[in-house]
Amino acid sequence: MFYKSSLINKIIKYGKKCGEKNFSPGYSGNISARYKDKMLITTSGSSNGYLTRNQVVLTDFEGKSLEKGKKPSSEKFLHIGIYKLRPEINYIIHVHAPYLSSFASAGKDLMEPIMAENVFYFGGIPLADYALPSTKELVDNTIKYFDKYNAVLMANHGFVVASQTIEDAYMRLELAESYANIVLNTYVLGAAKILPPFEEKKILDLR
Ligand SMILES: [Zn+2]
User: Fold this and answer.
1) What is the CATH number of domain 4-205?
2) Which of 170, 86, 160 is nearest to 125 (CA)?
3) Centre of ligand 1 from the C-alpha of residue 29, in Å
């Protein structure tokens, strides 16, 4: 079990990386860490890239702030839904990274087996149906993919990734954004060569 202050440090550190890599332009995105039977989550209106210690708030699984004067991100129920569904998940990063959000906004998932590494790490990245941000419908539409996947595109919105460690969640975010960039490039270059099912299976068997 990590101490609360070290979890806050991790959220700030990886939030900064999200900012530096332009995964979280402006006020977009939010990050959380499971803490006992609660979570630490970035506050409403904060920017992942410029977080201060005051912009992370202890929140219970009813979505209630446990720190006076601090308001959790409006997407708190998305985070809570994933933590409730997947007890082994400890960290969640939600961003509006430009390439991933381009696919999400074009209504295209990233399920086709195009790059071996991506098949290995993600299987595929499904696209959840659109719902108004911060609604229960958005939570329901998105978390239903987390029974099988750890990373999901949210239509006309962005991307969410969950993992046991924040390092791994962030690495998968980098991989996914780079992958979305590559897949977009394959459109420019004519078309991607889709891996045949037997090759896809060989990669999945390595996992
Ligand atoms: Zn968002």
Assistant:
1) 3.40.225.10
2) 160
3) 5
